[in-house]
Amino acid sequence: MALYTIGEVALLCDINPVTLRAWQRRYGLLKPQRTDGGHRLFNDMDIDRIREIKSWIDNGVQVSKVKSLLSQEDSDCLAEWREQQETLLRFLQAGHLQRMRTWIIDLCREHPAQTLIEHLFIPLRLRLQSQQPTLQALLSMLDGVLINYISVCLASARKKNSKDALVVGWNVHDTTRLWLEAWIVTQQGWRVDVLAHSLVQLRPELFDGQTLLVWCGDIPSAAQEQLISEWRENGYPVYALRH
Question: Which of these, 230, 219, 221, 239, lies nearest to 163 by C-alpha position?
Fold first, then answer.
C-alpha cells in the first residue's frame, strides 16, 4: 500500500497540513505512521478517512463531534472495500463501461444499496472530486453509469405495489447523491420519482398530494429540520432523508 507525506496528502485532499496536524493532536481523528525521523506517513485508508472527515465538516458537523460519526469497520473490511474501489477505478480508467455495468449488477446481488453507496460509491466519488480534468471525466463517467443503473431500478420498483413519493434535493449541489438516495428508499419499499434539480427554497404546497422525501445533505440544518417539522404539523407529508 502506498505511503504519502503530509505535503502530498494536503495536495491530494485539498487541505492545509496545519489542519491535519490539529485533527491528529487535538481531536485524535488520525493515526499516521512515522518515519525513523518522526515524519508523518499516511496510507490510502488514512486518505479515505480524511475525506470522510471533510465531508462531515462540510455538512455542518463540528470537528469535535466528528470522531463518533466516523466509520468503525475493522481494517480487513476497509481493505476489502478499498480493493473494490480500485477494481471500479480500473474499469473507468480503461473505459470498459459495459464490463463495469455487469460488475456492478453482480455486486448489487450480494449487497444492499446502502452498503454499496457508503463503502464503495461515495468513497470513490470523493477520491475523484478534483479540479484535474482527467479525474473530472472519470467522475462524470461513473455518475452516468450509476444514474442509468438506478433509473432501471426505479422503473422496476414502480411495478410493485408500494408507497409513492418524490425525492427532492433541498439546497444541495450533488445531483448524483439524489439518485443514490432514491435507490436506497426504493429498497425500503417506496416507488419514487426524482426531481431533476435541487431547490433553493422548498414549498410543499406546490406538490399537492405527494409525499416528499427530502435530501438536505448528510445532516439537515436546524432551520431545515424546524421547517420540515412545521410542515408535517400542517398536514404536509414531508420527510428528511438521512442515514
Answer: 239
| CA gap 38, 33 in Å, rounded | 9
The widest CA-to-CA distance across the chain, in whole angstroms, is 66
CA distance 100 to 40: 36
* 9 contacts 42 by C-beta, under 8 angstroms: yes
Give the CA dihedral 149, 151, 157, 162, nearest 10 degrees: 140
Q: Considering only CA atoms, which of 170, 163, 207 is closest in space to residue 189?
A: 163
Reported pTM: 0.72
Rounded to the nearest 10 degrees, how much is the dihedral formed by the CA atoms of 187, 188, 190, 196?
A: -70
Q: In angstroms, what is the C-alpha Rg of the chain?
A: 20
- Which pLDDT tens digit goes with each residue over 45-101? 888 888 888 888 887 788 888 888 776 555 567 788 889 999 999 999 999 999 999
Q: State the cell numbers at 178.
A: 439524489
> What's the angle, vertex CA 140, arms to CA 16 and CA 5, rounded to 5?
25
CA distance 210 to 139: 33
C-alpha cell at 55: 465531508
